[in-house]
What does this fold into?
Amino acid sequence: MTKTNPGNYFEDFQLGQVLRHATPRTITEGDVALYTAFTGSRFAVTSSDEVARAAGLARSPVDPLLVFHMVFGKSVPDISLNAVANLGYADGRFLAPVYPGDTVASSSEVIGLKENSNRKTGVVYVRTTGVNQRGEAVLSYVRWVMVRKKDEAAVIAAEATPTLPQAVAASDLVLPEGLDFKGYDFTLGGSPHAFEDYEIGEKIDHIDGMAIEEGEHALATRLYQNTAKVHFNQFERAKDPSGRRLVYGGVVISTARGLAFNGLENAGLILAINGGRHVNPYFAGGTIFAWSQVLDKADLG
Amino acid sequence: MTKTNPGNYFEDFQLGQVLRHATPRTITEGDVALYTAFTGSRFAVTSSDEVARAAGLARSPVDPLLVFHMVFGKSVPDISLNAVANLGYADGRFLAPVYPGDTVASSSEVIGLKENSNRKTGVVYVRTTGVNQRGEAVLSYVRWVMVRKKDEAAVIAAEATPTLPQAVAASDLVLPEGLDFKGYDFTLGGSPHAFEDYEIGEKIDHIDGMAIEEGEHALATRLYQNTAKVHFNQFERAKDPSGRRLVYGGVVISTARGLAFNGLENAGLILAINGGRHVNPYFAGGTIFAWSQVLDKADLG
Amino acid sequence: MTKTNPGNYFEDFQLGQVLRHATPRTITEGDVALYTAFTGSRFAVTSSDEVARAAGLARSPVDPLLVFHMVFGKSVPDISLNAVANLGYADGRFLAPVYPGDTVASSSEVIGLKENSNRKTGVVYVRTTGVNQRGEAVLSYVRWVMVRKKDEAAVIAAEATPTLPQAVAASDLVLPEGLDFKGYDFTLGGSPHAFEDYEIGEKIDHIDGMAIEEGEHALATRLYQNTAKVHFNQFERAKDPSGRRLVYGGVVISTARGLAFNGLENAGLILAINGGRHVNPYFAGGTIFAWSQVLDKADLG
It folds into this structure.
């Protein structure tokens, strides 16, 4: 009997199957400091306990994207160890703030399966949920990945493609309990621009650029306990045409989010991820730039 | 209206102006651990809560230079985003210890302005002050930077060059309350050399050398939330004759301080920064060495 | 009088001598987060406070290997600053769990001395012990290093070679007080494989590979406050045939341990280090792989 984890192949997944992922994770001030070192994040509400308290929270919550990476990382050994490509995300919602000291565990439900016509691969859709130590959901999102079949001849019992929202409805957004920005100090926030200053359709070039080295993305991806081999195994990667390790897409997302401070200073807490795709690989040493467009607005009061 | 921060140009500053900087920062055990990883610092009083308690403190204070970098980082977007060069520091004093969990905010007063004869740039002198969540000053220092003018024709209303002390007077040094080295254990400190063993004029070659990689200084500088583009934007920097990112001078200062343990083992707490200049740029990969000279001594009892 | 530490030469050591090492170290959540970033460790009991509590512990203990590196690091300035080679380890036992907030100090007793026939070097055997702030031993191990003589003519008073166990006896293993895996959740652990599934002689190829960059090992080794020059001083190392910094062997051990999760998922706490040698140097950029063999089993109840 082999002791190592072979991962799941496309034919191993079944509609409705729930996979409880391993390695629950206590997120600490140490993780938060590292996340700042990885991203340079300057959003006041996650940078200063005092700003967070003034906004009605117990202290600075863990950056929602750090929570995302932690919850995501747990799902890799079960969902995407044999993935060819991580295709997309949708309907991501942060359901409760996570504070240092909280422990996050994660599980995924298979909500879609679609074999490709070549019968060598298929697309697996999962809804992944992160819960804290009290069993409260803190994050829920859908992702879909193309996964290899182990046996081309294997027959897939039932297939289905889930219907996913283009965007999370404003009525589905969950604000942290007690959140109140009445006394918010825009100077400490870093910009005078408030909700009403942003217009639908507006594009913001965040100007700044950030290069990430091999050592940096590897530190981040290990911190997230994401074990996908493409990020670490240089010996294997040397055989790839790129010859390079692939950077975990979440590192790019977080870098872009860090850059987006310059123009979105007072947008301190991500409530939802409408959707996303990794449209091109990023290799260490390249400089990442970011821009944002306001697609819609919803006044939450 | 552009949403991104253009930074202040030379003509935007006025004598007496006070700029409250954004992004207050709760400094945690995570930041302290990273600072040790960046510097290898071994000073017993900042390494061991037990040593700190034996010296009359609540626990290990945050390394004063880490406090400096945090306070400094906040000032960059307002003071030096359009800087040509960071010219110098003077009259820096640490006024109260910072402990993990404290939140530091910072502000700067413009105390000097001197336009250069080419009218393209000018020197801005600021006194920057860091305060904790109780409003107590923890650090105050002067720095001066050469800043670009946006409009060469702009007329500067009032100019002045501040008089700065060559060194902080011993009578102006502030010891952490309760500090008492009576029971100090020199073996745990790492050397038998005490105050009375150091002579004015004595030079100490700290012997050891330390190379810093791109990924390391970028992690540190992001941790300090210092956003100066020259440290991160490799795409832009490729157009510079050096072709390289500039390493934040504070990284070099802290590396030198870490190396200085070897010969200054029992000098665990910096009380003041008499002055300093970045006399040459440092690029990643070079090996940093350090030496110290005892310029003066003051017995604080 | 020179102020810098020259380190001890072979003739400076005496049988029975006890060296109290400098720089006690409070180990924090920040150190733990960094260790995860360095290794990607996923063992549930050190990753999740909840899993640790379910196993009868106060919270997640600090990874024993992180404790090892901290205790080891302290011994370098006294034991191996003038070492030619770090030859081996034996009889290492973790005697009490270390929790974030604990402060570890370390000391070494010289238990063996053997001059080499060339009279230029000799082998020093030390038993190094780490203790916490309550004076309780947390770790004890033997290591031996080849150390240069300063003066070839120096006569060594007394020599002895200690007898070391091939392996730590099961009866000498110390379990953390209160440890109870009765309610252990193997799904959260990451594998169904339990004690009874491993057979003596069984070999496990851990499959995954991990590359480490210069910036990464330097961060780790500085965090451990290990000051051996070969890890940091690139200027000096450029004169070595390799032209490269040597990676601290402990970085390789911890990387291998992180990789070993894949196949040893539920072996969350190292109780002892039977022995070990660094059989080849590792240079940054290489990909580390790992395999394990079950040499023996002992049912601790």
